[in-house]
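task queued by scheduler; priority normal; single chain, no ligands, no partner chains; default sampling; output format set to structure tokens
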Amino acid sequence: MPTLTQNEIDQRIYDLYDEYCHGNIDRREFLQRASVLTVGGLAMAQALLPRYALAQTISFTDPRIKARYLTYPSPGGTSGTMRGYLVQPNATGPFPAVLVIHENRGLNPYIEDVTRRAATEGFLAFAPDGLSPVGGYPGNDDDGRALQASLDQSKLRTDMVNGARFLKAHSLSTGKLGVTGFCWGGSTTNFLAVDLGADLKAAVPFYGAAAETTRVPAIKAALLIQYAENDERINALWPAYEGALKASGAQYEMHMYPGTQHGFHNNSTPRYHEASAKLAWERTIAFFKKHLGVPA
């Protein structure tokens, strides 16, 4: 695991890592700039790189769940066919359904683990891999980020919309659909709340860019919006988003977690804030149980 704790890493390194995560600089530039930014900056930067193998919380062989990869049709998407990771409770169903949307680098091990976490709570959980038309998550975030940036973003979002509709109609689903996502997936969660309208019951975006304010009246789902305190780029969008939600009479609640960084839920790097991540996930599960029905 990383040898440095969250409090030992300079905030300027976090800010630089945010640039790297969002594709504004590559890994080499991230490490080079970190090394000259402060004493020990290179070690801080290296500590922020993900350790997925050590961050798993639910094994893919956990007896409480059944997991498999499958394909679904995606007309109008990148290639017309998509692959995703479906995890169900080890029971007969049907189950309330939760779509899990990855960050800006494809279906990596962290998102697969989150999908399994949702299934252990009684939900039929499905995580599309937006990179499947170009070979799938390539095994590392740098290549994954580059691949995702190379895609037609409108078609990629269509692939997520089709994933949501596929899950809602699945034979193991009750038809009550929720969605959650992280970073790019948080932004896409907001987008799906607009695009799906009444077909979506609940949405939980984690530190995602706000929906277009002019389209907010289309939102019919209940929203649980999760923000990190130290996330200036994303948080700057909140006042206008909140104003539009209020004006449209949307059902929403927002939580901002003190002392946290963008990505605080991801337990593979020191940006992870254990107490806040645990609380945010507990709120997420309770929210889904409230709006989708308590799983049997």
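post-processing summary
- The mean pLDDT is 91.
- The longest helix spans residues 274-292.
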